[in-house]
Amino acid sequence: MVFFYPILFLISFLLYNVYSLYLNYKDASALGLPRVISPITPDNPLWIALQTIFKTAVRQFPFGAVSFTRHTRLGWEFHDRFHTHVRLGDAWVLVTPTRNWICVANAATVTDIFSRGRDFVRPIWMLEALNVFGPNISTAEGHDWQRQRKLTATPFNEHKSPQAWDESFRQAEDMLQSWCSQSRDGTNATPDDTRTLALHVLAYVAFQKSYPFGSIPLHTIQDQDSLTYRDSISIILENALLIMVLPEKLFNLPFLPRSSQQVG
Fold it and tell me: Where are the transmembrane segments (predicted)?
């Protein structure tokens, strides 16, 4: 009896997903495009948290390039690149239990989509993690987007491009010198260093704040009560996955370490 309700919940959950997948498949069939079925929605928060655990097992499925497992991972498009388009054509549909994704690799079609912003609105729900500091141009639509665009037009415009390039070049030179000064084993901090470079360029262009290159020491940030813009963004990027998966209030629980509370 102890396991009855968990098993019932699991069966109900599976049946619901199968039925939802069936309905979405019917909708996708009406489009007349090639279809790829994924029984798991790649951006499902629970799956995002667990996909690393199941990654090794999932890769053992003996279906090769056409396996549904190819498109279950969050960010699958970075690994798949153009392979599915080579196999299926310029446009195809990824069918999942939650929604259908139309993947397009035709320049004329993509240009037409981007020129019709009112017909093809952005999926704002995908950008909720960027609302950590409140509504912004990345998460706004319609009139609110126009207002946000006016606010950002001054610090971010074509006249700032030379500054962005100059600071990028300076930061890249410093990063290269830092890498060359490493031991013969090289460095394993490439993601952290490139993120730092991007943050420093952004801080310089937006606020005229120039920082010497160097990976941002998180242990130092965690000891501070007041953070700079650069340090705040660094914490957000470092914990972007947790921010997407977990509710904001969870980070403020008193028994959590200070580093987790700073995220909230």
Answer: 6-25
In this structure, of 2-11, 119-128, 212-221, 237-246, the range with the lowest mean pLDDT score is 212-221
The answer to whether residues 32 and 116 belong to one domain is: yes
- Same domain? For 159 and 206 the reply is yes
Residue 66 has pLDDT above 60, yes or no: no
pLDDT exceeds 90 at position 144: no
Q: What is the residue-averaged pLDDT of the chain?
A: 80
Look at residue 24 and tell me whether its pLDDT is greater than 90.
Answer: yes
Domain count, the chain: 3
Domain shared by 222 and 143, yes or no: no
Domain that holds residue 197: 151-263
Which H, E and C letters describe the chain, residue by residue?
Answer: CCCHHHHHHHHHHHHHHHHHHHHHHHHHHCCCCCEEECCCCCCCHHHHHHHHHHHHHHCCCCCHHHCHHHHCCCCHHHHHCCHHHHHHCCEEEEECCCCEEEEECCHHHHHHHHHCCCCCCCCHHHHHHHHHHCCCCCCCCHHHHHHHHHHHHCCCCHHHHHHHHHHHHHHHHHHHHHHHCCCCCCCCCHHHHHHHHHHHHHHHHHHCCCCCCCCCCHHHHCCCCCCCHHHHHHHHHHCHHHHHHCCHHHHHCCCCCHHHHHHC
Give the torsion sign (CA, 246, 250, 252, 254): negative
pLDDT band at 234 (very low <50, low <70, confident <90, very high): confident
Structure tokens at 108: 């004329």
Give the confidence band of 133 by pLDDT, cuts at 50, 70, 90: low
